[in-house]
Amino acid sequence: MLVSLLLLLPNIIYSQSHSPIYAKVLCLNSPEGCECKISENKSARIFHGEAAVLEEFPQNTEYWKIRTSKQICQYPRKNLKALGYQSSFRPMQTSRDHSPKSLYQLLQQEDADRLEKTESQSLGIYYPTYYHLALEEAFPGTEIAAYSPSGKEIGRASATFLEQVRWEGSGIAKDGKKYHFAGEGKYELYDLEWGWGAGYGYQVYPYRTIAISFKDLCEKLRSKISSCSKSKVIGALAYIPKIKEKRIRMQDGKVHDGYFCLNDTGSPLYIRDDRMDIFVGVHGGGSPYQPAELSRNTFLDAGIFPLYPSDWRMYTSEKERFWCPQEKLPRNPYSPSETECKLDYHAIAPEKGMEMRIFFRKDGSLVRCKP
To answer: How far apart are CA 249 and CA 363, in angstroms?
Structure first.
């Protein structure tokens, strides 16, 4: 049953469920965090975006008891926003094949054959999140019409599912239709195994595709690629040593080799500088606002933890966060200074960063995956 809560209204509406009720902590313009009462004489500090489970939430009280990853405390109910999910959905139980495509499927044969002898260059440390195909079965609800960019109705699906498509980029409805977000509240239908990348014929594949900012990638490569643009770098082959070192066993029984294709992008509000988004098919995206069985994916199970909203300590609105300006990053990308950029993930979660490398052929051209 879908948990339904409207926690920001005076009259609380909810449906009882044996499933845990997750909420998002709201704490704006407070880099030092907000007070959460543990007892009459003791309190803790919690931060915007932290995930909490509601322990006690009577309608006639100002404070509700919540459980976070660190403590149990009482927090103003007006500053808690509940998030619903489909408790019966299990993304890791899908029959879809999430095995990474082989390098010979991704690359020209000569590039795949010579890869170990190809020159690589470090792009520095990148910090991951996960994205996936939204499934309507996980987000049921009231059906609404979906419209194409031209204004034509192209299908009907639940409003919560279409919201997920806007966030994740693509999704599959219960009737089998595949929707791709086209911007400005409009959608396109497509017929691919997984979904489109960022253009030029590129598609996304589970545990092989990474979305990045091509603008920022070009900034790092401008000394090697003249007049750098997305068309010149999309599909770049990337290597993340930490992924290989983890020896992550994939669905086909093989250990992941650490190689990826940089063939997708995301909103510049979230994917910028040294951020990367890893595509995981229909597996879970690592949301801290859901039980583990709903957010699981193969990388997360292996200890590749993504950034969470609470890894930013300064928000001016629910989703508008402080970002460390790129020019203020320490010159050594392998050891961010604790005194630099103290309000975002560089100081809050440096352990989540991973080195990324790319490859150049002998003639200086970039090794890229095939469209």
So the answer is: 35
Q: Which residue has the tokens 């975006």?
A: 49
Question: What is the DSSP code string of 346-360?
Answer: HHH-GGG-EEEEEEE
Quick: pLDDT tens for 291-332: 888 899 999 999 999 999 999 999 999 999 988 876 655 544
Token pair in block for residue 265: 């992008």
pLDDT at position 133 is 93
Quote the pLDDT of residue 329: 55
> Cα-Cα-Cα-Cα dihedral of 90, 96, 98, 100, to 10°?
180
**Per-residue confidence (pLDDT) for residue 59, from 0 to 100:** 83
Query: Residue 175 has which token pair?
Result: 């009737």
Residue 268 confidence (pLDDT): 82
Place of tokens 């604790």: 338
Are 256 and 250 in contact by the 8 Å Cβ rule? The answer is yes
333, 124 contact by CB (below 8 A): yes
Return the structure tokens found at 318.
Answer: 């629910």
Taking CA atoms, 7 is separated from 16, 87, 91, 159, in Å, by 14, 19, 27, 19
Distance (Å, rounded) from C-alpha 200 to C-alpha 267? 18
Q: Establish how many alpha carbons lie within 13 A of residue 68's alpha carbon, considering only the half-sphere containing its beta carbon.
A: 21
- Strand 178-183 relative to strand 170-172: parallel, antiparallel, unpaired? antiparallel
Mean pLDDT of 142-147: 96
Q: Residue 334's pLDDT band (boundaries 50, 70, 90)?
A: very low
What's the sign of the alpha-carbon dihedral 331, 320, 198, 130? positive
Asked whether 261 and 110 are in contact (CB, 8 A), the reply is: no
Tally of CA atoms within 13 A in the half-sphere of 303 that contains its CB:
8
42: DSSP letter: E
Helices (H) and strands (E) in the chain, counts: 9, 19
